[in-house]
């Protein structure tokens, strides 16, 4: 090696000056974005995003279920360009990815859902705004031009609920997603430990943790108090409003309620939070446009199965034309490929874009989406598949029992290699 080359190799690399650019510099996959979010956020906030219900069995199970699936490539197909776009509910999407609804987003970043909408609009990825959003439906609609959907939790006050649906429709939200896996609030024990309840009961440790994240704390203190901005209650202070609203959600949703919501929306809706194929069949009978197979990212019923394991049955039970979306545990382009190959029309991701948001605001959200897109392209190319639409179950198989990693040194070989 020549001296000039050695010097170039040892020269200090320029460090980006802007904090968001610094945070994203090493974010080459979703796990790296997760680490960046861990460094940027107080522990209680990171745990709010990261945590699952009770023993977090479903949370871990979601990832394990994807890891248990293998991808079987085809070779010599001459694939040099792949088309990642898909047709979903009458629209062309750049990839089969939708950003899932997540509440309290201004806790993760002071610009909250507006920043998510801006990050999503870079690629034209649809974003589902939560009923528990901390920016209003109007503010998010105005923040960026991309496609937006609205997620509804049924409210006990039906007049308020009806008004909310009307506002979302008038603001141009294209789909209504009714979440139905909230008969009770999942026990997220990390939040209990951290005092992150409604209203918050922050502990001294949580406070000190905030001090160690001055950037986040500055913005938190300099911004308006966090509240459910979309639902207007003209009374009380933000904390009381938040408590009243938390009590105002209808836990016991029935199929009649689903029909009522569909009538209010005036068009077929999507139902989120189903797993059983009998429920998917009923959704089809009621003329819904689609379902989202979901265990809420492991945050509601612990020990619920991973949605990817329920997909094949759901596909069989689904009426013609019923869109099947799936979420919970998608972290890689290969996970998207597995879900689509097994019959999903698209997937939703929650935590991946929240990591990006926590690390670097709108730019971090855009990075999360771009990471998943570029991984999707690479995996499809390696599989020899030229378009997402060409994927089918022949590309996926269940992993067999683990093969021994270390063969004995005596030269014993397994029969297949002899
Ligand atoms: C912090 C957080 C808040 C969430 N809030 C909502 C919500 O308000 N409404 C909803 O339907 N789902 C909510 N979810 C569930 C997501 O929509 C989605 O089902 C889940 O995040 C998918 O799993 P993943 O995070 O592994 O991608 C939330 C998830 C997280 C992580």
Q: What would your notes on this structure say?
A:
- It is globular and about 75 Å long.
- Strands 4-11-10-9-8-7-6-5 form an eight-stranded parallel beta sheet. Strands 1-12 form a two-stranded antiparallel ribbon.
- It has one domain: TIM Barrel, CATH 3.20.20.70.
- The C terminus is likely disordered.
- With 418 residues, it is α/β, with parallel strands linked by helices.
- The chain is built from 18 helices and twelve strands.
- The structure holds flavin mononucleotide (FMN).
- Flavin mononucleotide binds next to α4, β11 and α18.
Per-chain topology:
Layout: H1 3-10, H2 19-25, H3 30-40, H4 43-50, H5 57-67, E1 69-71, E2 86-88, E3 91-93, E4 97-99, H6 105-108, H7 112-121, E5 127-129, H8 137-143, E6 148-152, H9 158-170, E7 176-179, H10 189-194, H11 204-211, H12 214-222, H13 238-247, H14 255-265, E8 270-274, H15 277-285, E9 290-293, H16 307-317, E10 323-326, H17 333-341, E11 346-349, H18 351-383, E12 396-398
Parallel strand pairs: 4-11, 5-6, 6-7, 7-8, 8-9, 9-10, 10-11
Antiparallel strand pairs: 1-12, 2-3
């Amino acid at each position: 090696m020549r001296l000039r080359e050695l010097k170039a190799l040892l020269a200090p690399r320029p460090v980006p000056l802007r904090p968001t650019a610094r945070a994203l510099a090493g974010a080459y996959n979703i796990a790296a974005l997760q680490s960046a979010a861990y460094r940027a956020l107080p522990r209680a906030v990171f745990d709010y995003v990261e945590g699952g219900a009770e023993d977090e069995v479903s949370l871990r199970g979601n990832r394990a279920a994807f890891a248990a699936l293998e991808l079987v490539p085809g070779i010599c197909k001459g694939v040099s360009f792949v088309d990642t776009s898909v047709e979903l509910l009458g629209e062309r999407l750049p990839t089969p990815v939708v950003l899932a609804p997540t509440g309290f987003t201004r806790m993760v970043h002071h610009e909250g859902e507006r920043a998510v909408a801006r990050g999503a609009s870079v690629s034209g990825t649809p974003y589902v705004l939560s009923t528990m959003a901390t920016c209003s439906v109007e503010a998010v609609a105005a923040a960026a031009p991309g496609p937006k959907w609205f997620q509804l939790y049924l409210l006990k006050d039906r007049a308020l609920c009806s008004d909310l649906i009307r506002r979302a429709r008038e603001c141009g939200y294209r789909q209504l997603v009714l979440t139905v896996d909230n008969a009770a609030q999942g026990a997220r024990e990390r939040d209990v430990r951290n005092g992150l309840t409604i209203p918050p009961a922050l502990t001294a440790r949580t406070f000190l943790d905030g001090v160690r994240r001055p950037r986040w704390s500055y913005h938190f203190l300099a911004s308006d108090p966090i509240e459910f901005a979309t639902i207007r209650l003209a009374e009380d202070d933000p904390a009381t409003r938040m408590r009243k609203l938390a009590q105002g959600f209808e836990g016991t949703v029935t199929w009649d309620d689903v029909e009522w919501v569909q009538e209010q929306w005036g068009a077929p809706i999507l139902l989120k939070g189903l797993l059983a194929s009998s429920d998917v069949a009923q959704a089809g009978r009621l003329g819904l446009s689609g379902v989202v197979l979901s265990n809420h990212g492991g945050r509601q019923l612990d020990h619920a199965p991973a949605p990817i394991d329920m997909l094949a049955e759901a596909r069989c039970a689904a009426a013609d034309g019923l869109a099947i979306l799936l979420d919970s545990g998608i972290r890689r382009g290969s996970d998207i490929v597995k879900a689509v190959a097994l019959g999903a029309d698209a997937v939703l991701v929650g935590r991946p874009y929240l990591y990006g948001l926590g690390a670097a605001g709108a730019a971090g959200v855009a990075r999360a989406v771009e990471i998943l897109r570029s991984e999707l392209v690479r995996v499809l190319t390696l599989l020899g598949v030229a378009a997402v639409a060409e994927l089918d179950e022949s590309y996926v198989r269940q992993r067999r029992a683990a093969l021994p990693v270390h063969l004995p040194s005596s030269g014993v070989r397994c029969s297949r290699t002899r």
